[in-house]
Amino acid sequence: MGRLIVISNRVSPPSDVGGGTQGGLAMALAAALREHSGVWFGWSGRTTETYTGQVGVQRAGGVTVATMDLEEQDIDEYYNGYANKTLWPLFHHRVDLTAYERSFGEGYARVNARFAETVLPLIEDGDFVWIHDYHLIPLAQELRKRGVKNRIGFFLHIPWPTRHLMTTLPRHDRLVEALFDYDLVGFQTNDSLEAFEDYVVHEAGGEVGPDHRLTAFGRTADFGAFPIGMDVTEFTAALEGETAGRELQRVQASLLGRQMIIGVDRLDYSKGLEERFLAYEQFLIDNPDMQEKVFLLQIATPSREDVEAYQEIRGRLDGESGRINGAFATVDWVPIRYVNRGYRRDQLAGFYRAAKLGLVTPLRDGMNLVAKEYVAAQDPDDPGVLILSRFAGAAEQMAEALIVNPFSREDVSEAILKGLSMPLPERRRRWESLMAGLRATDVSAWRDSFVSALMKGGPARLVAR
């Protein structure tokens, strides 16, 4: 059995691989790499004046971590440019924010070629290669050009756009064609898989065979939905720890008999935070008797602050939260506690436990693990209620949540009232069903199902052009 080579845009620092503060995904990948004596390769996060192709290699927790540096121009064009100004907004259905600049596409192609050149000496015969996310879609194609015949898999962590939106991307066919150099491609949801198949059939003239085996561009590859889970065991253990307990007590002391609604998101336009604030305002208008009895704690961690769209969303949220607080606050109550900083997962576990409602209302999301973490953090004897956007990938698995349309203020407002007034037996029934689903589809099950599928079969299948 060959080794597993994981390739991602960024690599966790060696000191963190498998560590107690690491996210569930990184821990799951680290476990797979240890099992298969693998290598984790990616960008170091550092810049260099001139690309050299040198690899920094370290050993941590039984995992070999290999990194490369990038030039400033690479970061501007590949990362800030094509990845986060072109693909991210497009794949999240924000064509109005999508930047189509030729230099971005050139930088994206150049950096993927550099990834291939740099990782090539690390790949041995019999190894299995698992590439992650939208930054590196063409990487298998670049590796094939350099003679790599190993099994290569790809997993997309964000949604795949509808066919009509995808066709707004210049040279969209080249990006899709690059996916057919993989042996296995995984999406988060059936919705994304179906959107991809629709493109292949109607734009590429391809065919969909049994078990989602697709043929197009003269190649055949396997495609599937592999919804990612969370590390339930690790998270519930953190919930019993000193940090989570301290944060729970801290929040409970601030409740003063009020009920708390919580939202935890990266500061991103795809998360629907403006719409969430307006829906919460609608709830306060619709239910004046609930004013001073409830508040929203919204944690929004800043990200990609060099990208103009993210600067703009932060400014708008500052304005909306201030306006709503100014309109409704009293001398001893503020309706929105809006926090722009990040917290450790064990701290968040305590916050989640204290909240009667988890408000997870992205406009478009690949999965959204916050929804799952909120459920996992609840007290089995007195669980809170999850309100979940129908446009989050998690909605396919979490039907016992209150599923809402995040674009409708009234829909979310009514769900907030229903959740806050839901009888205990119904809350328990919903929570028990959701928790059983989390355990059955945790991050280890996701990892094992993908790796097992990748390791089946021979080299990349080709058909006559």
Summarize the structure.
This protein has 465 residues and is of the alpha/beta class.
If you had to describe this structure to a student in words, what would you say it looks like?
The protein has 465 residues and is α/β, with parallel strands linked by helices. The protein is globular.
Radius of gyration over all CA atoms, rounded: 23 Å
Distance between the termini: 32 Å
Question: Order of strands across the widest beta sheet?
Answer: 3-4-2-1-5-6-7-10-9-8
Could you give a short account of the major beta sheet?
10 strands, mixed
State the total count of DSSP E strands: 16
Which SSEs are present, and which pair or pack?
Blueprint: E1 4-10, H1 24-35, E2 39-47, E3 56-60, E4 63-70, H2 72-91, H3 102-119, E5 128-132, H4 139-145, E6 151-155, H5 163-166, H6 172-179, E7 184-187, H7 190-202, E8 207-208, E9 213-216, E10 219-225, H8 232-239, H9 242-255, E11 259-266, H10 273-286, E12 294-301, H11 308-328, E13 336-339, H12 345-354, E14 357-360, H13 369-376, E15 385-389, E16 402-404, H14 409-420, H15 424-440, H16 443-454
Parallel strand pairs: 1-2, 1-5, 2-4, 5-6, 6-7, 7-10, 11-12, 11-14, 12-13, 14-15, 15-16
Antiparallel strand pairs: 3-4, 8-9, 9-10
